[in-house]
Amino acid sequence: MEYQYKELFRQNLVEWFNKEKRDLPWRRTSDPYKIWVSEVMLQQTRVDTVIPYYNRFLKKYPTLQSLAYAPQEELLKMWEGLGYYSRARNLQAGVKEVVEKYDAKVPDNRHDISKLKGVGPYTAGAVLSIAYNKAEHAVDGNVMRVLSRALHIKEDIALPKTRKIFEQAVDMLIDPQRPGDFNQGLMDLGAMICTPTSPKCLLCPVRDYCIAFQEGDADQLPIKTKKIKNKKIKYDVYVGYDENGRYLLEKRPDEGLLANMWQFPMIEISKESVLKSSDEFQLNYNVDIMDFVNDNLLTFKHVFSHLTWEMNCNLVKIVKATDLPENVCFYSKEQINQLPMPVPMLKILNVLN
Ligand code: SF4
């Protein structure tokens, strides 16, 4: 890939980054473990949300060893509210591998680091360039947006194969002396200036070398065709309590969405449902309910990346519970506060408090 302004582009970007960079806790360290943690937390989550989690997490797990052998329930509790919990489990598995296979030293080359659980091409490049000063690409959605505009790349960024083109573009442009600053500069530029809508081109450090700015079509880039379908599922949620004021909770399976997190029992409502959801609840969980105390405790939607839960929550009194399923148990409010619970369940808990 040829690009005549490459030197000027990289110089302006790195200088701008060093002047304007946001003061973030993970930018005050060159410890690859801490940078790895930050990059995993930042996937799909806003910087402002991540900061308190990052600080708390590293206080609890300051070293690779401390995270590698932490109990999973405690780890999920630390991650509670950040979502995408498989990130936490993969991070722990990857960290354990580093401790056991690499003598607690995060690998400093793409080949080895990419083999760690949960470390994709972006995270690998971010850790290698920021912590180890290696000229390695780290291409995420922000970077694709900036480069699609600056270099006028019109490939569909929804197609997995397109990433390669952007990785080659970064390989061509990256500052070999300051690769970490270059990559972070691209990320910050995408987050602060070259935003999805209304890019602030007049403030942009690479405006003079941006083809989309010259052509006046920045708002039409990047090209992204594929729309991810978001499936909707309706649930009746049963917030059931016993005579001691303890609530019935269920642990989710140890694989898949929100694995190992705790929730109030949820009954899916579909066209095929033959039983009333309250009957299904009683049958599935071996409980008898006296009455609906409140059949409209809370109604809300929770949107994941690929599906939406439409939740209708009912408060019910449980008068009899025999032979509860293995993953189901009554807990007091104090005990519930110690359990890892996903955000939609925390919303319900909030109403109960
Ligand atoms: Fe993005 Fe505008 Fe800068 Fe080009 S000039 S990189 S479109 S902000």
Please, could you describe this protein's structure?
The protein has 353 residues and is an alpha+beta fold. The protein has 2 domains: 3-220, Endonuclease III, domain 1, CATH 1.10.340.30; 231-352, Nucleoside Triphosphate Pyrophosphohydrolase (Alpha-Beta Complex). Helix content is 42%, strand content 16%. It contains 15 helices and 7 strands. The protein has helices at residues 6-20, 32-42, 47-60, 64-68, 72-79, 86-101, 110-113, 121-132, 141-150, 162-173, 179-193, 211-215, 277-285, 333-336, 343-352; strands spanning 231-241, 247-251, 262-263, 266-269, 287-303, 307-321, 328-331. The strands form 2 sheets. A 4-stranded mixed beta sheet has the order 4-1-6-5, sandwiched between helices. It has a 3-stranded antiparallel beta sheet with strand order 3-2-7. A hairpin with a 3-residue loop joins strand 5 (287-303) and strand 6 (307-321). The mean pLDDT is 94. The structure holds iron/sulfur cluster. The site of iron/sulfur cluster has 14 residues, from helix 9 and helix 12.
